[in-house]
Every structure is written in C-alpha cells, then in structure tokens.
C-alpha cells in the first residue's frame, strides 16, 4: 500500500516533429514554438515579466516555472541575468518537470543553441539522476540556484516553500495537458508567488484567464510570439514587503555541520563567528579519516530514504565543486557496494530495486556472482551498487568549507561556551567566567550532543552512540576498487589506509581505543570478505579511532528554528503554531549520516534564514523540524489525560 505514494520517473523521449522541433509523444505537442525556442523564452517569459528591470535593486530574485522541458527558459533567464551589469546578487529559479530529459539528451538538445554553450555545459555537468523529488543545483559560482522538482506538479508543487517574484506559466497546451492549467492547480501556483509578483504565459485561453483572475491577478494581453497573435501577462495584487535581517551569526561547533552552515551563510554575505572548543575543526565525530557517502533505500521510499537521496546527490555535487576549486579536499568517487547480511535481506534488496525502478546511475542490484565480479574479490553476498558512491576524508571537507569564504568566517578555537544568554535583541556566548566570547542576533547550534548541555530548556531528545574504527595500512588487504558496506564496512586504501568499522556501543562514554572494538570490526570484515583470514591480525596492536555519533530519538536530524518550550501550545497545534526562540537555530543529530545529511541540511537552514526557496518538500521539512518533539509531547499528554470510560467502574 505504501508504494502507491511512490512514482518512478519516466524520462522524456528525444524525438522531433517534421519541422525539426523537439516533440513530446506523451502529450502530442511541441516543446516550443517552431519560430524558435530561445526567442520564445526571451519574448514571452523574460520580457513578459519585465526582466531584467524587475530584479534590479534587490538582493535576490525568484522565478517559478511550471514546466522545465529543455531548460531553455532557465538558460535564457540565467544568460540575461549574467549579462546585466545591474543584476541582483542572487538568482533563484524553481521549476518542475514530470518527464525530465536525461543528461545525454539535454546535451544533444542544447547543441542547437551554441550561444548558451557555457551555461548549458555547467547545467549538464550537475544534472542529477532522474530520481523523484527536489534537486538543488548551485551554478554560476553559487549565485544562481536551480531547484528542480522531478515529479507530477499537480500533486507535488503544493509541497514547495517559496515566494516567487516572477511566474513562468509554461507547459504543453491546455488542450494537450489540461492538468497544468486547471483552476485548482493555478490557485496552488498563485499561492507560491509573493504579492505584486508578475506572470507571463504564451496562452490566452479564456478558462486560464478566468482562473488567474479569480486569484487576484490583473491580466493584460500583449503581442504574442511566432504564430501566436497574443500572449498573457499579469500582476498579482497585494502589498509587497521584503524581510530584512542582520547578517551576523554565531555558529557553535566546527564539525561537518558547523563548517557546512558557516560556509553556506558566508556564501550569502553573512559574517560568521565560528566557535569550537577544540584546537581545530573536525576533532570529534567528523575527525574520522574516512567516511562513506551513499544513500539509504527503503521499499516504501520513506522520509528517511527520501532525505538521504536528496542529501546524497547534493553532497556529490558539492564535493565535485570543492574538488575543482582545489581547496585540499581528499575524496574519491569509487562506488560503493552495500552487501546483504543474509539471504532474506538479499531478496528484500532485489525486491526494493525492482519496485522503485531507480535509474542505474543511482543504484542497481547485483546478485552474488555479479557483486563478486564488481568487487574483484570474493564477497559474502549480493547487494546494492551505488556507482557514484564516494569515500571522503571528513577533516579535509571541513577545512575546504572553511577556506571557501574565509574572509567572512572568524574562528574561535580552544573556546568553550558555558552558557547562551539573550538580552532581548542579541545572543551572547559566555565562557565559564561569564564573559562574552562573541555575540550576534543569530545563533546556530551545530555542536552535536553538547547542545543538550548548552540549552537544556530546549529538551532536545539526543543520545550518543560510541563508534570505534580500525585502521589497516595499505597492502594488508586486497586492492579493493570499491568501498564495501553492510554489517560493517571496509574502504579501499586510496586515501592511504583501509578503514574498517564501526562499532555501535550504547551507553558507553569510553573514548579510548579498545581491543574488543578491533575484534568486533575484524569479525565484520570477515563477514564482508569471507576469503580474508582475519586471525592473522593482532587486535591488540592495531590502530583506530573513537568517535561519538549524536542521534535524535526518531533517528532523523534536527534542523531549523528551536522551539520555546516555556510557552504552552493550544490544543490541536501544528508545527506552524509552535513558538520559537528568537534567532536560535539547530543543525544537529546527523548520526552516522553526516556526509549525506549535513551539506543539504546547511543549505536548507541558510535558505530559511534568507527567505529563499527551500530545497526540501514540506513533509521532509516537518520530519526534521526541531518543534516536532514539542508537538509529540503535547499529544502524548493529551492522550494520557483523555477519559477512557472506565473511571467510574
């Protein structure tokens, strides 16, 4: 039953009509006017929304489009923005596409417009595997953000969070694809626009005009493009207000979470004071020499799996950019094999892959024989193969993030914080003598389990899980082309050593490397690689490292504005009703998925703080909102207090 909520992406098919115009056999319609796709984009959507004049004088400009298609409207808008010397600082473009083209098809299509080649190449390089959900692409040196939703706009667009300045109503003709022109859909689209937004579309259909007018759009016909005599433009009624805020924040903690949010805010012009109790970044859980980056899969494609997919794909794009910038990042996109623990799980993995029908450039199932061939060494079972899975040195990632916008990040190492105090406008980070170390209107707790000590009134349900890894020198294991994981993991030696791990020790605060931990890890190694004689290793002489993963009670991260637990909730309250502590935010509980969740969580929090389009759907936002625990506590209390009918018996 749960699978009914999941719909695999059916890619567009590259075909052309008799005039050589890209054509959709699914909708029996062309993608753009026979008179020219780029010319149509400029005439209808760019000029129709008064661009470039409309974005001048602002910090950011947000475009919402209802059909990505070939990406021509996006590329034309990006080109116009890039060539405008008076452009706004940041351009956001949000689009949706039910049947996206593959990267290779986009490359073939974009060759028709050589004047767009530089931009098209950058877009194609970041184009994601065709998996459902939102994909966040950072382009143009990070100043152009494309947020594209792969899926049915009629069911998924309402899950987005944004306030658009300009609306591109595109898609196939109302007679060919009526769902995208339905009054209820146009109501949803209109609600995603800010007051006094503008709108343009090539159709002047009377039902479309009526539906838009009912949503307070003031409409006018203008000369159309090509064979279209008219086109439609509009302005949304309402008062236009832009939020303003101080761009100075304290970030507490310099692991993956802290350095990632510091980099994301600094990229937007914020000044960051980064406070870390250790002498350097990445000294706790983020200090392991190697981490695995791969998604998690679930047959019902649940919230954790969807968040993992979005975060994994975003992290891969970020790592590639950091690598190109030569900031000292150490990583390798070596591919990862996630092996089944037993025959039952092997069957479940095969069934999951068949049911979800993901593209093979995201994941594929390999039986035992194929997995052994792929691994180039005898493995214990078949499993999932992630061709773009990566191994990463987390300390080098933290260092690269801090170097990216170093002029806007002030670091305070060897600095412990004993208390946070709010004076009504500013948060002060106080040391153990009560002296202010730093102060700012915004504070982000990215200090893992220590956040519970620093802010006990938030009642964060955090726990710690001890993890010990074992390190083997290069040459002590076969030359593995891929990392292997399952009930444990082992990495190739490409980063200088093999890492094996990791233990999961509950209620254990011992930070010393122990012999029993090495024995445990060697047993997991033998399960993955049955041909390895692990008894030849002396567990008492091996090197390793201990880190502590921080998790929430529901095993999901905690990202966003922290609740004010001192204020009561009304009965039936929702997340939007939860009172919040002013300027206090969290990026916590990444568990063992810091590489997959941390970078996208930072992008999300930075987008929230800057009133940008958010990179996750609303149900995912709710699943990681810090206020969710307060709501659950209230609902449990109400349930416990509810009469049972047995009181008088």
Helix and strand topology:
Elements lengths: L14 E2 L5 E3 L4 E2 L6 H10 L13 E6 L6 H12 L6 E8 L5 H8 L6 H10 L6 E7 L4 E7 L2 H4 L7 E6 L13 H9 L1 E9 L4 H8 L3 E7 L6 E7 L11 E5 L3 H12 L3 E5 L15 E3 L9 H22 L6 E2 L3 E4 L3 H14 L7 E3 L1 H8 L7 E4 L3 E3 L1 H11 L4 E4 L6 E4 L4 E4 L5 E5 L1 E4 L4 H5 L7 E12 L9 E4 L1 E3 L6 E5 L3 E2 L8 H14 L14 E10 L5 E6 L16 E9 L5 H16 L8 H7 L3 H14 L8
Parallel strand pairs: 4-5, 4-8, 5-7, 8-9, 12-13, 12-24, 13-20, 16-26, 24-32
Antiparallel strand pairs: 1-2, 2-3, 6-7, 9-11, 10-11, 14-19, 15-19, 16-18, 17-18, 21-22, 22-23, 25-28, 25-29, 25-30, 26-27, 27-28, 31-32
Descriptive overview:
28% of the residues lie in helices and 25% in strands. The protein is of the alpha/beta class and 649 residues long. The chain has 2 domains: 8-236, Vaccinia Virus protein VP39 (Rossmann fold, 3-Layer(aba) Sandwich), CATH 3.40.50; 246-331 and 390-459 and 560-638, 3-Layer(bba) Sandwich (FAD/NAD(P)-binding domain). Strands 16, 17, 18, 25, 26, 27, 28, 29 and 30 form a 9-stranded mixed beta sheet that branches. Strands 6-7-5-4-8-9-11-10 form an 8-stranded mixed beta sheet, with helices on both faces. A 6-stranded mixed beta sheet has the order 20-13-12-24-32-31, covered by helices on one side. Helix 8 (256-267) runs parallel beside helix 15. The chain starts with 14 loop residues before the first strand and ends in an 8-residue tail after the last helix. 47% of the residues are buried.
